[in-house]
């Protein structure tokens, strides 16, 4: 049993190393053309265009595309308004937070960060978030609610919940042990396009040995991210997790997750999971490589890159970055780790912003007492993208014991 699920994840690993990425992608596209259900109900959804009665896809758990389109139908995305100015943090018991986390949460809550009352900070119990999310899901996409309920381990639920919460409510999600350094009003905003998704590069190991140390050549963090409510990228991610849970239910229930979570890569990322940053990373690539949509790379800025900024991916392929190590990428795959590796400034693809490694790590030489950069005094060079840092104060065992 256990080997089976490991095999699945090995497949994902290849996916991100992009050797079979396109095959999987084509498979998904094929499935979608295969599932035009003639018996679709025509009840109206919450879509603003209530006058049209288009055919809605039936609930069908064994089809990824159906789950994704049901999320899209029932939670229509509005790209014209900005990301909701919510900061969301939650923990099993907010009255007994792990040592040191209270102080970090206070920074998020401080006037210096929330200035002008633009942002609203929420600190809630996992139970409250579960209830908030469930109320919405049961009504519109019960299959997602069922998937959440099937998850047998608190860590899996805790991770899935954050995607669901931000999908439904929008805003910034932050683990309770994240130390904010740059007030949100100073975070990068593109002049070309409104930003609806912010992801940070959590790991980017540019070394021939990457595979012996990391699950992914490059991964995005799920400890701190920001997204507009109902964004199709989160719909894709949630659909994928829901699909895996329903189709691999027996395997998932048979795993001893406490044991499984002890097997981690150099980044403390479990080698097997269905909710973690690896799957978030895979789905981001899946989303931006979608053959049906044209996603435009607006800029990438790389250390030692002679033509920093405003260059497109076609040029990128022909330029000489001989010092990038990692798996082969098929020629026809537009985006891969190569699009973001070694970046020293935000990279934007349509409304998605990928923040460089420093954004969630700092330089590593900050002193213990560093304070929120209230006046934005660090506003030049790579260092100005240092936004926050994980203090690693919440080992999963604490979550389990609570
Ligand atoms: C559903 O739509 C079909 C046409 O697509 C129509 O004939 C039928 O009456 C509709 N049913 C309901 C319940 O509105
Ligand atoms: C979150 O906590 C605050 C403060 O306790 C409370 O007012 C709010 O209703 C809670 N939110 C949810 C969704 O339960």
From TrEMBL:
Pfam families for this protein: Gly_transf_sug
Alphabetical GO biological process terms: protein N-linked glycosylation
Residue ranges crossing the lipid bilayer per the database entry: 12-30
Tagged with keyword Ribosomal protein: no
InterPro entries named in the record: GlycoTrfase_DXD_sugar-bd_CS (IPR007577), Nucleotide-diphossugar_trans (IPR029044), Och1-like (IPR039367)
GO CC annotations on file: mannan polymerase complex
Annotated SUPFAM superfamilies: Nucleotide-diphospho-sugar transferases (SSF53448)
PANTHER family (alphabetical): INITIATION-SPECIFIC ALPHA-1,6-MANNOSYLTRANSFERASE
Similarity annotation: Belongs to the glycosyltransferase 32 family.
Record's protein name: Glycosyltransferase family 32 protein
Lineage: Eukaryota, Fungi, Dikarya, Ascomycota, Saccharomycotina
């Amino acid at each position: 049993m256990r080997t089976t699920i490991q095999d699945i994840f090995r497949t994902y690993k290849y996916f991100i190393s992009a050797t079979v990425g396109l095959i999987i992608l084509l498979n998904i596209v094929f499935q979608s053309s295969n599932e035009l259900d003639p018996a679709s109900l025509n009840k109206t959804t919450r879509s603003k265009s209530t006058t049209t009665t288009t055919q809605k896809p039936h609930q069908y758990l064994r089809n990824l595309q159906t789950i994704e389109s049901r999320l899209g139908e029932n939670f229509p995305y509005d790209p014209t308004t900005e990301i909701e100015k919510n900061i969301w943090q939650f923990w099993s018991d907010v009255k007994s937070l792990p040592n040191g986390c209270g102080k970090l949460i206070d920074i998020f809550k401080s006037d210096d960060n929330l200035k002008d009352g633009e942002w609203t900070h929420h600190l809630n119990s996992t139970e409250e978030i579960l209830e908030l999310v469930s109320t919405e899901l049961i009504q519109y996409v019960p299959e997602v609610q069922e998937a959440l309920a099937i998850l047998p381990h608190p860590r899996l639920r805790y991770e899935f919940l954050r995607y669901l919460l931000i999908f439904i409510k929008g805003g910034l999600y932050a683990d309770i042990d994240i130390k904010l350094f740059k007030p949100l009003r100073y975070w990068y905003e593109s002049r070309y396009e409104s930003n609806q998704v912010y992801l940070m590069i959590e790991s980017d190991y540019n070394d021939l040995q990457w595979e012996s140390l990391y699950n992914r050549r490059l991964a995005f963090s799920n400890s701190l991210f920001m997204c507009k409510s109902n964004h199709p990228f989160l719909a894709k991610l949630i659909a994928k997790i829901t699909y895996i849970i329903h189709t691999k239910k027996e395997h998932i229930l048979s795993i001893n997750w406490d044991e499984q979570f002890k097997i981690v890569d150099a980044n403390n990322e479990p080698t097997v999971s269905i909710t973690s940053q690896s799957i978030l990373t895979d789905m981001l690539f899946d989303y931006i490589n979608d053959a049906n949509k044209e996603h435009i790379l607006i800029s990438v800025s790389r250390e030692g890159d002679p033509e920093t900024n405003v260059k497109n991916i076609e040029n990128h392929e022909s330029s000489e970055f001989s010092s990038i190590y990692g798996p082969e990428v098929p020629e026809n795959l537009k985006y891969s780790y190569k699009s973001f590796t070694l970046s020293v400034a935000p990279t934007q693809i349509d409304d998605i912003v990928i923040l460089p490694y420093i954004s969630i790590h700092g330089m590593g030489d900050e002193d213990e007492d560093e304070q929120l950069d209230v006046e934005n005094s660090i506003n030049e060079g790579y260092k100005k993208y240092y936004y926050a840092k994980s203090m690693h104060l919440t080992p999963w065992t604490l979550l389990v014991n609570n």
